[in-house]
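Figure 6 in text form: structure in, sequence out.
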């Protein structure tokens, strides 16, 4: 077959994968990610600095405007300023031609600022390649994303458009300036007819996990506010690192998309690192449990209602990702559609791409099924707790497999639930979705299974009489388990804190929502722990920008307001003597901390540690606002070694730990971890 120029271009547009195999397996010799860029000449630096100063002055003028439309569009301008600021300040231009790209990015920022000053925003009605921006709820930074707007898009019409989300591959040099330039100049690997394509930045190179995951959701939400998307025809797609991201979105958010097309990448941690990186892992018991946050193989039952088309090159080592998912899906009775590019390494074969596009077009005709009659849903954490009309409110124990199989029958006016490891469920059918007789209550049959423990024996079977559907054919019901019995309704309100969605740990969960770092203003119990806490605070600020491309909000302990407590997770560094905020809540945390010793309050036999050489880290509901976390002495828990391979970017610490600071912090750990563990479902020490 003759390859056209378009085919050749497609084959050449392979995702950059930077990994040195075994050379990247040495934790005490970690290369910089992103790498250090070129030194700018004095003329280039002066030119870029001067243009940036002028652009910032224009943005400041826009901030003075009282027009709501102007205020809402400032992030579309500010993304250009922030991109160039970081490129200059942190040496993130890597080749001479990157300087020319930076000029183009800066010029577009000026053009938009000038237009918006005059009340115009031509990019909002532009087809083709468009770069947009939003202000992230996590840390108030502006974040970019790209959109490909089809020429057929009608800005004044009522039509809703299919939308494909495309997750990019690993690019260690894909910092904001270069990402924006690419989205201004290159369509990318896909451009289906009459389809919006959204390209999230994902906060750089983290496989769209943690803050990168939230970036995708925030970019999509912002794009929905700007373009008319058909909610039932949004797909998740990606290749290489983007394929890994696609897998994780598919299994964790199965009801959000009409289809998913993961290509290459990875889908779990240990086997991928063994095959791709030549790395043999020796995890602690809690690390192994925490793999279950992002290891997709444990969530494959969730793909029952999400059409999934996997792609791999026949000769690509990353074919392992789809192979292991195919095996895991087979164990759930599901057969994966897996297209193979013949004699192809790390690229999308053009014939395979045609088949993918054809299959997606057919699936888009049907769109997403909003209310499937059968749902299988598995989770290990309440961070991921929803599939279509089913929500898990409470688990028996985090990080153990929990599952619900739900089937509704309109003819029988009944729902049948088979559950394991679950103690609270909510069912919500929107208007028009309930197939039940309006005049009769809905019967709920609950069968508790031990299937997750290797037995198929039902241990408990009940029939509950639920509410009737409402006249708009909606239906809602909550059930919860008390002892060995299920009851209708929500669990009675209690003053005790419980693990629930968005308040379930581990430490890294605090960095998936708005957070403020609380710096100490005083002198601590010991100079050694003081110095360590300050170093860890500085490490978080530095690495948050480098790894998650944000500017962390830092306030002194004397500056924390009631508004901060109400709206933000608080990341507190120091000890009860050095940090006034920590002092104010110390007695309400499950920790004992004095000048002599520190320990978790686990009873008479708990281990006690010399406070001069040990420091606790933990996540816990903030006693001043139990709807938000307080984190003590920790940033996100994976460190520089994990930057070298995206499959390593998983939590390293659970809900709490005791750190021996006599062992210096390194690219893996904040010191020597001498104790660590999870709180139970009531946030008590196990």
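Output sequence:
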């Amino acid at each position: 077959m003759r390859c056209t120029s378009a085919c050749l271009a497609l084959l050449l547009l392979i995702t950059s994968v930077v990994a040195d195999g075994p050379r990247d397996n040495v934790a005490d010799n970690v290369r910089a990610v992103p790498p250090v860029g070129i030194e700018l000449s004095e003329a280039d630096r002066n030119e870029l600095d001067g243009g940036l100063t002028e652009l910032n002055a224009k943005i400041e003028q826009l901030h003075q405007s009282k027009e709501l439309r102007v205020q809402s569009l400032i992030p579309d301008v500010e993304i250009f300023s922030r991109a160039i600021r970081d490129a200059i300040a942190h040496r993130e231009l890597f080749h001479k031609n990157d300087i020319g790209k930076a000029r183009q990015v800066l010029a577009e920022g000026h053009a938009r600022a000038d237009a918006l000053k005059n009340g115009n925003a031509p990019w909002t009605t532009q087809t083709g390649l468009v770069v947009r921006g939003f202000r992230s709820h996590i840390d108030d930074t502006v974040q970019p994303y790209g959109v490909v707007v089809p020429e057929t898009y009608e800005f004044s019409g009522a039509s809703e458009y299919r939308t494909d989300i495309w997750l990019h591959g690993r690019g260690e040099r894909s910092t904001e300036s270069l990402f924006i330039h690419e989205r201004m100049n290159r369509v990318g690997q896909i451009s289906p007819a009459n389809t919006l394509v959204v390209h999230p930045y994902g906060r750089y190179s983290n496989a769209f996990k943690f803050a990168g995951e939230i970036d995708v959701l925030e970019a999509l939400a912002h794009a929905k506010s700007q373009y008319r998307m058909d909610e039932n025809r949004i797909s998740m797609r990606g290749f290489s690192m983007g394929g890994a991201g696609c897998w994780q979105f598919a299994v964790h958010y199965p009801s959000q998309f009409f289809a998913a097309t993961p290509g290459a990448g990875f889908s779990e941690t240990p086997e991928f690192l063994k095959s791709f990186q030549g790395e043999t892992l020796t995890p602690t018991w809690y690390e192994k449990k925490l793999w279950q946050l992002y290891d997709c193989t444990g969530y494959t039952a969730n793909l029952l209602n999400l059409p999934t088309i996997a792609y791999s090159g026949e000769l690509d080592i990353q074919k392992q990702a789809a192979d292991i998912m195919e095996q895991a899906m087979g164990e759930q009775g599901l057969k994966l559609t897996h297209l193979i590019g013949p004699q192809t390494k790390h690229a999308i074969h053009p014939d395979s791409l045609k088949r993918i596009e054809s299959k997606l077009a057919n699936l888009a005709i049907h769109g997403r099924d909003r209310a499937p009659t059968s749902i299988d849903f598995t989770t290990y954490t309440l961070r991921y707790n929803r599939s279509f009309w089913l929500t898990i409110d409470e688990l028996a124990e985090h990080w153990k497999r929990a599952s619900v199989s739900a089937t509704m029958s309109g003819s029988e006016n009944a729902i049948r639930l088979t559950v394991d490891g679950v103690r609270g469920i909510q069912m919500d059918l929107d208007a028009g979705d309930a197939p039940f007789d309006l005049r009769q209550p809905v019967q709920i049959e609950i069968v508790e299974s031990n299937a997750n423990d290797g037995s198929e024996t039902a241990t408990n079977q009940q029939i509950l009489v639920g509410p009737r559907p409402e006249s708009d054919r909606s239906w809602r019901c909550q059930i919860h388990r008390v002892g060995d019995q299920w009851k209708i309704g929500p669990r009675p309100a209690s003053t005790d804190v419980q693990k629930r969605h968005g308040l379930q740990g581990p430490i890294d969960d605090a960095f998936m929502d708005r957070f403020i770092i609380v710096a100490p203003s005083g002198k601590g119990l010991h100079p050694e722990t003081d110095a360590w806490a300050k170093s860890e605070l500085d490490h978080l600020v530095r690495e948050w920008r480098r790894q998650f491309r944000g500017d962390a909000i830092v306030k002194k302990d004397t500056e924390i307001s009631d508004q901060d407590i109400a709206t933000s997770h608080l990341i507190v560094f120091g000890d009860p003597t050095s940090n006034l905020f920590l002092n104010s809540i110390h007695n309400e945390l499950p920790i004992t901390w004095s000048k002599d010793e520190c320990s978790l309050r686990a009873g008479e036999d708990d281990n006690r540690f010399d406070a001069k050489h040990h420091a606790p880290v933990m996540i816990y509901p903030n006693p001043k606002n139990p709807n938000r976390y307080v984190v003590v002495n920790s940033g996100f828990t994976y460190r520089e070694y994990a930057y070298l391979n995206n499959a390593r970017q998983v939590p390293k610490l659970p809900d709490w730990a005791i750190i021996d600071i006599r062992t210096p912090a390194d690219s893996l750990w904040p010191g020597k971890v001498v104790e660590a563990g999870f709180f139970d479902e009531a946030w008590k020490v196990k």
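Caption detail: The chain has a mean pLDDT of 94.
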